[in-house]
Design brief:
Elements: E1 13-16, E2 30-33, E3 66-68, E4 73-74, E5 79-80, E6 92-94, E7 102-108, E8 111-116, E9 120-131, E10 137-151, E11 166-168, E12 171-176, E13 181-186, E14 189-192, H1 199-206, E15 211-217, E16 222-228, E17 252-258, E18 263-268, E19 273-278, E20 281-286, E21 289-293, E22 302-303, E23 306-307, E24 310-316, E25 324-333, E26 337-345, E27 369-371, E28 374-376, E29 379-381, E30 384-388, E31 390-396, E32 402-406, E33 408-410, E34 412-419, E35 433-441
Antiparallel strand pairs: 1-2, 3-6, 4-5, 7-8, 8-9, 9-10, 11-12, 12-13, 13-14, 15-16, 16-17, 17-18, 19-20, 20-21, 22-23, 24-34, 25-30, 25-33, 25-35, 26-34, 27-28, 29-30, 31-32
Length: 442
């Protein structure tokens, strides 16, 4: 059956045959205007340009040294162009690919810090640099988003460990594992803070690490870094943490750098993963749990629900060119310290090298330690604690009976003083160690 069409414009139209339904349903027709906006004698519509060339090698390409920025976002005016990347505009910036991929971007004020594997750069944001005839840079505002990129002096980067990055104020901390250095980026440039008494230690241990976690403790003013080794047996972290009173070495080490003393102050037992400072408190994450550090209401020397001893390592190195016999040890401080280690080095005395433990002595327990009917350990006299050093090597009488000698021979001595009282809380006095001395004869 026929259909009546009402056309608003008296121009040519194209009628497309509609789909006819049942006998009681009229056919459906589509009307298309052949000219734009139905204008009389206007431009006719066409299919337009068709793509007729295909790219057989079409695939994604990753540019590890380049940055691309989108359009602007303004919530007040409902402008959202974050999904727009017009290829016809200059929206990309690249750094030298020879310095490795970009691992970390950190916006600071009106500048952008770019951390590559082997280099650290800074770029201007929303401005560019114009140089005078004398070579002095002048900044000028413009439409450009990422301006000129300038590298910092020094052959350092962040390797492939962006998780080591931490920031506080104008100071940025990070680790260059490949060069065995811990670094600080501030207004005076890049400074290797690992050179503050720990240069050799970091060079030896960073090479065996795979992950390095960094955080800044605002309460104590310290940069905390944790080194983790994947293989403890074949690649252990040297001088790692000790579990309790045993000798088991963990596959990580946590230590802190203090800006106040300009040095590395201490090793810590906890693993510093995904830490954060908030409201002058320092929180650390381990597994699925969150822990508050420096809490005044918890047991001292207790980390992640486990109590650990506190210890101090140091060296007696007076006149290291002379062989000495260390006879005694004394300390001034809180009751409860014991001596876990006293070993000497560089001993080349003829006749003593047959004993493997000639350079080692027995552990000295705390004051008043009872062994059977005998009381051993440090002895307190006028506020100081004294004890003799009993050599582990045994000497012989003429009848072949054995006895221990007093004193340990060597050029220098390596000592560890340890304090282990996990039941003490904040209401108890702190453990203090003011001075440690020894009596040595040439």
């Amino acid at each position: 059956m026929g259909a009546i069409l009402e056309i608003s414009y008296f121009n040519s139209v194209v009628l497309a045959g509609g789909k006819t339904g049942s006998s009681s349903t009229p056919g459906i027709y589509h009307v298309e205007e052949s000219r734009i906006r139905g204008a009389f004698n206007g431009k006719q519509m066409d299919y337009g340009v068709k793509a007729h060339i295909t790219d057989e090698e079409y695939k994604s390409k990753v540019r590890e040294n380049a940055m691309t920025y989108s359009g602007i976002f303004n919530s007040r005016t409902n402008v959202n162009e974050l999904n727009q990347f017009p290829s016809g505009e200059d929206i990309t910036r690249a750094v030298d690919i020879a310095e490795g991929s970009i691992q970390k971007l950190h916006a600071e004020d009106t500048n952008l810090n770019i951390f590559q594997e082997n280099k650290v750069n800074r770029a201007l944001i929303d401005k560019d640099a114009i140089f005078t005839a004398e070579g002095q840079p002048l900044t000028a505002s413009g439409k450009i988003v990422i301006g000129q990129i300038t590298p910092y002096s020094g052959e350092y980067g962040i390797s492939d460990n962006p998780e080591s990055f931490a920031v506080y104020g104008n100071r940025k901390y990070f680790v260059d594992r490949r060069r065995g250095a811990v670094l600080r980026l501030s207004r005076d440039g890049i400074t290797p803070i690992s050179d503050a008494g720990m240069k050799d230690w970091f060079k030896d241990n960073l090479k065996v690490c795979n992950t390095i976690y960094g955080a800044y403790d605002e309460q104590k003013g310290k940069y905390c870094v944790t080194l983790e080794a994947p293989d403890t047996i074949n690649n252990p972290i040297k001088n790692g943490m000790i579990i309790g009173n045993g000798n088991s070495i963990l596959n990580y080490a946590t230590l802190c750098y203090s800006e106040r003393v300009k040095g590395w102050t201490s090793f810590y037992t906890y693993q510093n993963r995904h830490s954060v400072s908030m409201n002058n408190d320092f929180y650390t994450f381990f597994g699925n749990n969150l822990y508050l550090q420096h809490s005044p209401n918890v047991t001292r020397s207790k980390f992640i629900n486990t109590a650990y001893p506190s210890f101090v390592d140091f060296v007696f190195n007076d006149k290291p060119e002379i062989v000495k016999t260390f006879l005694t040890i004394n300390y001034e401080g809180t009751t409860g310290w014991d001596m876990q280690r006293f070993t000497t080095g560089g001993n080349t005395i003829s006749g003593y090298n047959a004993y493997n433990d000639i350079n080692d002595c027995y552990i000295i327990p705390v004051e008043g330690t009872q062994v059977g009917n005998e009381t051993i350990g440090f002895v307190r006299k006028e506020g100081f604690y004294f004890s003799e050093l009993k050599n582990k090597a045994r000497d012989f009488f003429q009848d072949n009976s054995q006895f221990n000698t007093t004193g340990v021979k060597g050029y220098y001595a390596d000592i560890r003083m340890q304090y282990y009282h996990p039941t003490e809380t904040a209401s108890d006095p702190k453990a203090e160690l003011f001075a440690v001395g020894t009596e040595a004869i040439v």
